[in-house]
Design goal:
The protein is of the alpha+beta class and 659 residues long. It is built from 14 helices and 25 strands.
Length: 659
């Protein structure tokens, strides 16, 4: 598709309009005469989109426009200025786009411009290739789970195929094979949604080039590409415009890639991906272009939308409301997809996810290589994001250079977050055993409940003596949230529960706190010890999201609610968050275990002892979940009695519906 500029057969009027509009978008701009301090990645698509528009239409105005930007790019002695000139993202982007422009325009380029472009592509490709060879085992050359690796090698591969440089394409192909074999099969991505939409399109580009140039079809290799749309889908906020911002996310509007959606839809016959592509290239296109903090952004992908859109794939609105991605320990559950629906996203895993963490340790031991770059990963295992009524109510920090657990919806021990935090590469050089994870997961298509327990004790400084810090999260069928935090330490500690919001929470006469964001609201109630104290404070987070533009700063203001217990060797927080004006929770009297009820929904928990005893419930289980008019659900249960009637009695723990 890409090399031959040949899309799947069939009409594509909307994609053609997009291509022609994008081809003309920069006509009022003067190309830079010298290299700006900021990134020049955008110069690539400024040339490639009009090149494709000329190929499609024959309009020489597009040829002239492409030539303007080609000449500007080839005049620059280096691609990239502030950070790793010739060896990083600027060079990767320009190699890809200008090589395609060279291929698409062919002999229609003036002789001098054609020769100069070829020379520049050879020069920059050689610089990139030699750096990749020399730096193997360090930085992006072998950072297999990182967007710089994917972009730089895809750029090198594009230039290699166009110019016939087999040593470039072979090295890039070998790297791609390793990436596909090592990426998580469940399709999740630890860098977060924003870097998913920035980097994964280049994996698709490379796969497209490989199949067209060499006849090698690796689209199903490893499983990541075939499942990654589902990951992206479930990190979409209700209403589809915004994204959940785990990982490094410049903002909540930088998550869509219409071109990638279309390519995944065509490859895997996915109606939902096709529908998302239509939405992202339609009504969501210009709001994202205006509000996104990531450049070049969504608009330059017009060439991909045109070439990757397959009109034979039907489009269908997504319907699945529950998902769990085991490699990243990511649970996502929602009441629906409409604007006012409620969503929770909850994660806990080793840095980079299980496969990356384990494989990187193997590389470290066997080769002495550092292959897991953790710059975009956060100390956020056990944290969650909560969205309801069209607004973010429990929020994430987004992007930071000095990453801290205190920026997330997490827990502190004696005021301390994770060990070795407060830096950019928050997981670098820490012990392999310092891992978080999820257990006791309940999530299925026919179940309105979602349940998981995050184990995060190992993430804290061993000197604190934390033996246990487990957070159990339950999402009810109607969208209420229940959190149970259980902590144990060798000595007495202060335990602090953190909630991050966009506005200060408001104390209410009944002891609850109101979370507001615009017209949206939720009620937080915490069943805590009498000696606890609650304060609200402002937390400022600042970041430079790109080393190629050192003057750029993002600042985010969080409003942090801190609930701290008195000193004790054991800590417990039982918390509910109820959207809107729903009835508030009350505590269930439990002889053993913990419980809350909302009237029609009741949550009973015992994630450690697995013994629940109330007036009507006797269970040996981690959780019993009761909803009026429906059969009960249990987690890790061997026995369940309701009102004296035994409904379950098994030898092995069972999770699911009873009856």
């Amino acid at each position: 598709m890409l090399l031959s500029a040949t899309p799947p057969p069939g009409p594509r009027p909307a994609q053609e309009v997009r291509l022609f509009e994008e081809a003309a978008r920069h006509r009022g701009l003067t190309p830079p005469g010298t290299h700006p301090l900021a990134s020049i990645t955008w110069l690539g698509p400024a040339a490639s989109n009009p090149a494709l528009a000329y190929r499609v239409s024959g309009d020489r105005a597009h040829l002239a426009e492409s030539l303007r930007w080609i000449e500007a790019a080839v005049r620059l002695p280096h691609w990239g200025r502030a950070h790793m000139p010739d060896h990083d993202l600027d060079a990767g982007w320009l190699l890809h786009h200008l090589a395609l422009a060279y291929r698409w325009l062919g002999d229609d380029l003036p002789d001098g411009a054609q020769a100069l472009l070829r020379y520049k592509l050879l020069l920059q490709g050689r610089r990139m290739y030699e750096f990749a060879v020399a730096s193997e085992g360090r930085w992006w050359s072998s950072s297999y789970w990182q967007n710089h690796n994917w972009i730089c090698y895809a750029g090198l591969a594009t230039a290699g195929y166009v110019l016939g440089k087999e040593e470039w394409t072979e090295r890039a192909r070998d790297n791609l094979a390793t990436v596909l074999d090592l990426m998580p099969e469940d399709g999740s991505h630890a860098e977060g949604v924003v870097y998913w939409r920035y980097g994964v399109p280049f994996l698709a580009i490379h796969l497209d080039l490989l199949k067209e140039a060499e006849g090698i079809d690796w689209w199903d290799r490893g499983g990541f590409m075939s499942h990654t749309f589902r990951y992206r889908l479930h990190q979409t906020a209700p209403g589809f415009a915004f994204n959940v911002d785990h990982g490094d996310c410049h903002d909540r509007r930088s998550g869509h890639s219409a071109g990638l959606y279309y390519r995944l839809a065509a490859q895997y016959a996915s109606p939902e991906a096709q529908w998302m592509g239509d939405l992202a290239s339609g009504e969501l296109l210009w709001p994202e272009a205006a509000e996104s903090g990531v450049r070049p952004g969504i608009l330059p992908e017009a060439y991909l939308e045109y070439l990757w859109y397959d009109p034979s794939v039907p489009a269908a609105r997504p319907t699945e409301t529950r998902a769990f991605f085991p490699d990243l320990g990511l649970l996502a559950a929602r009441t629906g997809w409409d604007d006012d629906a409620t969503l929770v996203s909850f994660k806990a895993s080793p840095g980079g996810g299980h496969r990356a963490w384990e494989t990187a340790e193997k590389h470290r031991v066997e080769k002495g290589w550092e292959t897991l770059n953790q710059g975009h990963h956060h100390p956020d295992s056990g944290s969650f994001v909560f969205v309801s009524q069209g607004a973010f109510l429990a929020v994430d920090e987004g992007y930071s250079n000095r990453k801290k657990a205190a920026h997330h919806n997490l827990l502190l021990v004696d005021g301390q977050g994770y060990a070795d935090e407060d830096r950019y590469h928050v997981y670098r050089d820490i012990p392999f055993e310092r891992q978080a994870g999820q257990r006791d997961v309940l999530v299925s298509p026919d179940c309105g409940w979602a349940h998981s327990t995050a184990e995060i004790a190992k993430m804290y400084d061993p000197a604190l003596g934390v033996r246990r810090l487990d957070r159990t999260l339950v999402f009810t069928p109607s969208g209420r949230l229940v959190l149970l935090d259980l902590a144990e330490a060798d000595t007495e500690r202060e335990w602090t529960f953190l909630l991050q919001t966009d506005r200060p929470t408001e104390p209410q006469p009944d002891g609850t706190r109101l979370i507001r964001s615009g017209a949206a609201a939720a009620r937080l109630r915490q069943f805590a010890s009498a000696d606890g104290r609650v304060v609200g404070e402002v937390t400022e987070v600042e970041a430079n999201p790109t080393s190629s533009t050192p003057g750029l700063r993002l600042t985010r203001t969080l409003h942090t609610l801190r609930s701290t217990t008195g000193r004790s060797s054991e800590g417990l927080f039982l918390t509910t968050i109820t959207p809107g004006t729903e009835p508030d929770a009350t505590r269930v009297a439990c002889a053993e275990g913990q419980g809350v009820t909302f009237g029609t929904e009741t949550v009973l928990l015992s994630p450690v002892a697995r013994r629940i005893r109330t007036a009507g419930v006797h269970a040996d289980a981690a959780a019993v979940l009761l909803s009026e008019g429906d059969a009960p659900y249990v987690v890790a249960a061997t026995r369940l009695e309701l009102d004296g009637v035994a409904l379950l009695d098994v030898a092995e723990p069972y999770t699911g519906k009873v009856g």
